[in-house]
Design goal:
Elements (H helix, E strand, L loop, with lengths): L1 H27 L4 H16 L16 H20 L5 H8 L1 H13 L6 H18 L7 H22 L6 H20 L8 H27 L2 H4 L5 H14 L5 H20 L2
Helix pairs in contact: 1-9, 1-11, 2-3, 2-8, 2-9, 3-7, 3-8, 4-6, 4-7, 4-11, 5-7, 6-12, 8-9
Length: 277
C-alpha cells in the first residue's frame, strides 16, 4: 500500500507540472487547447515507445471497446482542463477538477464493488472540504470553471476505468493505448491549429508532454497496486502541487484559508493511509 502511495505522490506532482507548462503555452504563446492536447498525446506516445518491453504491447488491445472508452474519457478530461486553463487560475481549475476523486470513489464502490468504510468516506469528504478552503468557490459559474468541472467528471471516470482494466494489459501498454487513441481522435482538430514554433515553445511543448506522460504512467502503476477507493484521497496532493506551482510560476500566493485547506488535505490523506495499514 505505501509503495502505491509513494508512486501517487510523484504522479500527482508531475501532472500539474505538465499542466502548468500547458497554461503558459495557451495563455502566453496563443496555443489552441486542441493542438496542445493533441501534441501531448502524440508526443507522449512516441516518448513511451522506447520504454515498452518487446512483445508487451498487443495491437489486438484496440479491439477491446473498454480500451476505447477509457481513452475517450482521458481525451475529454485533458481537452477540458486545457480549455479551462485559458481563462482560470491554476489552483481554481484544479479545485473544480477535484470533483473527480469523489466521483471515482463512489463509482469504484458501486461498479467495481470495492470495499469502503464510513471512516474512509468521511475522510474523503473532509479532504474535499480542504479543497473548498483552497479554492473558495463563489456562486458564479464561468465557462472556464464549467470546463474544469467537466474535466473532473471525465477524470474521475477515467480513474475508475483504469482500475477496472488493470489486468487487461501491462501499465505501459495501457498508457500507450490511451495516448494513441487520443492522438488519433484529436488529430483533425489539433492539426487545424498548428502554431509558429520557436526553441522556447518547442521545449515547453516537449516538457508538458513528458511530464504528463510520466505522471499518468505512474498513476496506472499505482492503481495496479491498490484499489481506487484506497488511493482516491491521495489524488488531492495534485492540488497541493498545483497551488505551489501557481505561486511559483504565476505569482498566486496562498492565503490563510488556502494553507488551512492544504493542511486538512494532508491530514485526511495520511489518515486514510493509516486506516489501510
Amino acid at each position: 500500500m505505501f509503495r502505491a502511495i509513494l508512486i501517487m505522490f510523484v504522479a500527482m506532482s508531475l501532472i500539474p507540472v505538465g499542466d502548468s507548462a500547458g497554461k503558459l503555452l495557451v495563455t502566453r504563446y496563443g496555443f489552441h487547447p486542441f493542438f496542445l492536447a493533441w501534441s501531448r498525446f502524440a508526443l507522449g506516445a512516441l516518448m513511451i515507445l522506447p520504454f515498452l518491453p518487446r512483445g508487451q504491447f498487443d495491437p489486438r488491445l484496440f479491439l477491446d471497446w473498454r480500451i476505447w472508452l477509457r481513452g475517450l474519457l482521458i481525451v475529454g478530461g485533458i481537452s477540458s482542463i486545457l480549455t479551462a486553463l485559458q481563462t482560470e487560475p491554476l489552483p481554481t481549475v484544479f479545485g473544480a477538477f477535484f470533483i473527480g476523486p469523489i466521483l471515482s470513489f463512489f463509482l469504484s464502490a458501486w461498479l467495481l464493488k470495492e470495499p469502503v468504510t464510513k471512516v474512509q468516506t468521511i475522510l474523503l469528504l473532509l479532504g474535499f472540504c480542504g479543497v473548498l478552503l483552497v479554492v473558495k468557490p463563489g456562486f458564479g459559474m464561468t465557462a472556464g470553471l464549467g470546463f474544469a468541472v467537466l474535466a473532473g467528471l471525465f477524470y474521475g471516470s477515467f480513474l475508475t476505468a483504469s482500475r477496472w482494466l488493470t489486468h487487461a494489459a501491462p501499465p505501459r501498454a495501457l498508457l500507450l493505448s490511451h495516448l494513441t487513441i487520443g492522438a488519433v481522435i484529436l488529430a483533425p482538430l489539433g492539426l487545424a491549429h498548428i502554431p509558429h514554433f520557436t526553441p522556447a515553445i518547442t521545449g515547453l511543448t516537449l516538457f508538458s508532454a513528458a511530464a504528463s506522460m510520466a505522471g499518468n504512467l505512474l498513476l496506472v502503476i499505482a492503481y495496479r497496486l491498490a484499489p481506487a477507493s484506497s488511493l482516491a484521497p491521495f489524488v488531492y496532493f495534485q492540488l497541493i502541487s498545483a497551488t505551489i506551482l501557481g505561486w511559483a510560476v504565476f505569482g498566486d500566493w496562498p492565503d490563510t484559508l488556502t494553507l488551512l485547506g492544504l493542511m486538512l488535505l494532508i491530514t485526511t490523506g495520511f489518515g486514510s493511509a493509516l486506516r489501510k495499514r
